[in-house]
Here is the input.
Amino acid sequence: MVAYSDRPWLTAYDDGIPAEAEVEHPTGLAMFEAALARGAERPLIHYFESTLTLGEVDRIADALAVALRDLGVAPGDRVAAYLQNVPQFLLTMLAAWKAGAIMVSINPMWREREIGIVFADSRASALVTHESLYGEVAASVVPETDVRAVVTTSELDFLDGAVPDLLAQVRRERHPDTHDLVELVSRHDGQRLDPPALHGDDVAFLTYTSGTTGPPKGAMNTHANVAFTSAIYRDWMDLEPDRDVAFGIAPLFHITGLIGHIGIALLTPVPLVLGYRFDAAETLRLIERHRATTTIGAITAFIALMEHPDAATRDLSSLRKVWSGGAPIPVSVTRRFEEGFGAYIHGAYGLTETTSPAHVVPRTRRAPVDAKTGTLAVGVPVQSTIARVLDDDGHELPVGEVGEIAVRGPQIVAGYWNNPEETANAMPGGELRTGDVGFMDGDGWFYVVDRKKDQINAAGYKIWPREVEDVLYEHAAVREAAVVGVPDAYRGETVKAFVSLQGGKSADARELIEFCKARMAAYKYPRQVELLDDLPKTATGKILRRELRQR
Here is the structure.
C-alpha cells in the first residue's frame, strides 16, 4: 500500500500543519537573504557566550566569499568544510554559496584515508578547517589533491569572552601555505561579490554517505531540497522566529545538523546555539543559558543528558520541541526523558538522500507503539511525499507487511556525485530505496524494524536486532544496547547483545538474558550478553553494530 501525505488520512493529523509545504525560497542563499531582510540586528548564532547577528554573519560571509574567489574558487567549484560545530561552518557554507560554489561537508572525526576519498571524489579546490585538524590530519593529504587553497581557523575565533572549559586545551598553530580565516575576512571587510545565479536544482552541498551499499558517495543535496526540508521542520516543529531558539546538538556536517539546525536557523529565522562538539555537561549548561526551546539529535545524545549528574540541577524547562532521528528510539527512553525533563521526544525519519526528513511525528501528536513488536512509529510521510513498502522484487506490500521502505518526493537528492551507476541502483526512477526495513499501519504511520543488512538468521528463524534491543531497554539498569548476529556451530547464527549500564545500577549477563527470555519468543532472546563501559558510536551518536560484530 502507498501512503500519500497529502491524501485524506492527513486530516487526522492536521493540527495547524499546512496541507502543502510552502517553500518561499528556492535556494539556501535566498533563505538567508529573506532572514536578513527581517532585521540585520537579529541574533543568528550563539557560540558559547558570544553572539553573531544576521548582519554580522552576512558581512563576514561576504568578505570570505571575496577571499575564496581571490584564492581561485570559481562558480561550480567545491569548497570543503572540515569543521566542528562552530560559527565558521555556517560562514563557510554561506561564503561558498555567495561565490556560486558547492560546499562539501566532511566529518571532523574522519582521518587521512577517509578525507582522501572525499577529496578525490569531489575534487574540491579549497578547504576550510581547524588549525588542529589541518596539522594532525589534512596536511599530509592535501598535497595529493586538487585543493589549491587552504583556509585555517581556530576554535577560539569568534569567542568574545572567557574560554569555556571545553576549549581550554586548544592552542593556536599557524601552518605554512595556509591562510587565516579571520585575517582574510579583515582584509576583505566591506567587499562583496555580485550575487550568483543560483537555482533550485543547483547543488547546495555534497554530503558523503555509504548509502545502502559500498564506499562513501557524495549525495547531491540541491538548493530546492534544502529549502523544502527546512520548511518541513519549520512547519512540523511549529517554529516561531520571535519565540524559539535552536540548540545544535547534532554535528553540523551531518544532514540532520545541516537541515535541522542550519536550515531552520536560516529559514525561520531562529538563533542557533553552538558549543563546538557534543559534551553532555556543556550541552545542559548552554540549553539553560540560552533558554533553547528546540533541538533534534540522536537518541544516544538524549540518553547521555539524562545520565549526566548535572541533569538534576539544570533548568531545561524551556526545551519543549524535541525531535530525534538517525537511530531507533526505544519507548522506555522517551518515557524517562519526559519524566526527567518534561519534554516528549518526537521521532523523525530520513536519510542523507532524503535531505533529512521524509517522515515526522507531528508536534501535537505522540507516536503510536505497534502492539505486536513494541516498535515506536517514526512518523508519517511529510507533505508532497509518497512512501511505499516493497518486497524483494520491488512490489508494493499491503498494510502491516514488512518490507523495504521506498520514498519519492521533493527532498530526494539529484543523485550521487559522478556516480550514475550507484544513483540508478539506489534511486530507480527517482524513488529512493532506503535499505531500511519496516511497515505501515492502517493510519499511515510508519515503523522502522531495522536495516535490511542487519537481519539475523538463527536456524532459519529471522530476527531483527531492533526488537531485542527494545526489550533490553526496558530493563531498569540498561543505558544502551546493541544486538548483532554472531556465528554459531548449531544455529548457524545466534543473537548476541552488547550492553552498557546506567550509572549506579548493576546487572549481569545472566540476569539480562533471563529478562529477555521471559519477554520474547525462544528463538529471539540473546544467548550471549557482553557488558561494556560504552558502546562504539559514529559522530552523530549512532551505535556502530559493525564494530561490535568485529569483536
